[in-house]
């Protein structure tokens, strides 16, 4: 057993890299006599089938923050972190039924474009600038940092070289080909991601069981640490502050999921590129089904790693390699890279290809969406309103490149993040409730006004910051105590919606806003396949929560 790569590991990984680059560049080529226009570059010519949409949604979503960050949270807190994945399955169904019909009917390129059609250009610009900053300084930098951390842990590659290597890999095909290249390579990335992830899970559980297989390993882990399989944590659990019991099911988790899956450009852009609404909804349903198995490949390995390092017999069996980069409760994010050290030659290359697939696909998605928002909502709005197709596509490529350079500079500065997944959720959670309130009321309450939405969006930040920084002990009132960040998100959403509702009513005296969206039953009518599939997903989730409550 060796910690580094063997010959076959390099063969597998290099083959994966060549395959992705080859497919990406092949689908990126211009058809004879046709030059890419904005729809080709940013929406893949609106030609994506359901299976490509579903695969691309998962590939864009699952990144280093899941493989490394969520495994780290599994190591520290257990299966409870899987609520982010399982509740996302329900959220996807809600998005497919109630949000997508409105977005596709309006022919959107970007989420900020919806804000302009429903509210105003000013609010659209405010949110466009916010999203660009969020993608560049939070999403891109975190993915690059965690990916390079994995390279450093497994292969000893210096952090800065890992950052540059991953950035160049993602840029090689995504900058040239746009969403089409990203989406079609994602189909391949998901195969590597799932297969490689399952291999790591199997071998971790097989090690725990002393070579007796997957089921025996799962049973052993459950018997050794039953507390790590509680979905609903009580207040005595040290991780309650991150996953506050029943509040996960009925509180702020909905804010995080609805914001991420419903109004996040690099996620929703795939569905906007569908052949039709029904095709987009089938893709959403496919992604919801895949979400059910994701905890098996990103959470269970973290729990298995926790059992392994606390069992002297297993550690002795693993040999000297086990002492390298040992994870701990203080450095939980080392759990997944630590596990990869023990895979046999060849499979290690496959598992690492899965991790690379998760990282690179997310980077490519974020780059494409950052360039889409900048080009369509900033460049064409304020810099060159009459830009040609060539100028528009070139601007998209240049803006993506600039975003990547900035992220490469910032990523190494992140330092030692512990439980990066929780870190990202917590700090995104300061701004997401306000934006979610603006969108929900804009979609489903015709009385919402532009002025009220702007006031609500701006007010949501001090409201969120108050809950985050208010000192303990000011009062016995729940509004003054130190509440978990997920509860903070729920409270911030409700208070922001109240602010928007009050100002909307004062401005129009209860009358509908002129830009309010007419809602009809026909708009939300879905196919029997979507309805049956959605019902099946909800039954499976009910069983899972009943088993691990």
UniProtKB/TrEMBL annotation:
The chain crosses the membrane at residues 6-27, 48-64, 84-104, 125-147, 153-175, 187-205, 243-263, 284-309, 350-374, 395-415, 427-445, 452-469, 489-508, 529-548. Its main location: membrane. The keyword Manganese does not apply. Keywords: Membrane, Transmembrane, Transmembrane helix. It comes from the Bacteria. It is a multi-pass membrane protein. Gene3D superfamilies: Sodium/glucose cotransporter. It is found in: Membrane. NCBIfam families: sss. This is Sodium/sugar symporter. It comes from Hwangdonia seohaensis.
């Amino acid at each position: 057993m060796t910690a580094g790569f063997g010959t076959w590991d390099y063969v597998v990984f290099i083959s994966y890299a060549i395959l992705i680059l080859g497919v990406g560049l092949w689908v990126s080529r211009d058809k004879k006599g046709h030059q890419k226009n904005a729809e080709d570059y940013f929406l893949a010519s609106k030609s994506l089938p359901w299976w490509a949409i579903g695969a691309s949604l998962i590939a864009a979503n699952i990144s280093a923050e899941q493989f490394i960050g969520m495994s780290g949270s599994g190591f520290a807190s257990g299966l409870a972190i899987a609520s982010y994945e399982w509740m996302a399955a329900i959220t996807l169904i809600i998005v497919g039924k109630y949000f997508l019909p409105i977005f596709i009917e309006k022919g959107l390129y970007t989420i900020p474009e919806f804000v302009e059609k429903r509210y105003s250009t000013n609010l659209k610009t405010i949110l466009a600038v916010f999203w660009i900053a969020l993608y560049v300084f939070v999403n891109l930098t975190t993915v690059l940092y965690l990916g390079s951390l994995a390279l450093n842990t497994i292969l000893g590659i210096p952090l800065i070289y890992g950052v540059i290597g991953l950035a160049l890999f993602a840029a090689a095909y995504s900058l040239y080909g746009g969403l089409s290249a990203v989406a079609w390579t994602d189909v391949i990335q998901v195969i590597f991601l799932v297969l490689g992830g399952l291999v790591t899970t199997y071998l971790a559980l097989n090690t725990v069981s002393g070579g007796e297989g997957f089921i025996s390993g799962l049973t052993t882990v459950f018997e050794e640490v039953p507390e790590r399989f509680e979905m609903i944590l009580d207040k005595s659990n040290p991780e309650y502050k991150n996953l506050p019991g029943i509040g996960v099911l009925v509180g702020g988790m909905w804010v995080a999921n609805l914001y991420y899956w419903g109004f996040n450009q690099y996620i929703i852009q795939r569905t906007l590129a569908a052949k039709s609404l029904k095709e987009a909804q089938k893709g959403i349903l496919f992604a919801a089904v895949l979400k059910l198995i994701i905890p098996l490949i990103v959470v269970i390995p973290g729990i298995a790693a926790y059992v392994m390092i606390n069992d002297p017999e297993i550690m002795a069996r693993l040999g000297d390699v086990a002492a390298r980069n040992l994870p701990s409760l203080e450095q939980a994010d080392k759990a997944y890279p630590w596990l990869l050290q023990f895979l046999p030659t060849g499979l290690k290359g496959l598992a690492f290809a899965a991790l690379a697939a998760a990282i690179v696909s997310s980077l490519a998605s974020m780059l494409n969406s950052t360039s889409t928002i900048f080009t369509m909502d900033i460049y064409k709005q304020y810099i060159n309103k009459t830009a040609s197709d060539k100028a528009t596509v070139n601007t998209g490529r240049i803006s993506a490149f600039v975003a990547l350079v900035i992220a490469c500079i910032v990523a190494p500065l992140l330092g030692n993040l512990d439980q990066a997944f929780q870190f990202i959720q917590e700090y995104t959670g300061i701004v997401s409730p306000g934006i979610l309130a603006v969108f929900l009321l804009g979609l489903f309450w015709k009385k919402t006004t532009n002025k009220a939405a702007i006031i609500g969006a701006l007010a949501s930040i001090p409201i969120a910051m108050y809950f985050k920084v208010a000192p303990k002990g000011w009062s016995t009132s729940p509004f003054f105590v130190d509440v978990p960040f997920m509860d903070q998100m729920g409270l911030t959403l409700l208070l922001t919606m109240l602010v928007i509702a009050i100002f909307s009513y004062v401005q129009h005296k209860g009358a509908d806003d002129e830009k309010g969206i007419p809602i009809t039953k026909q708009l939300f009518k879905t196919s029997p396949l979507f309805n049956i599939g959605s019902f099946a997903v909800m039954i499976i989730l009910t069983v899972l929560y009943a088993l691990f409550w």
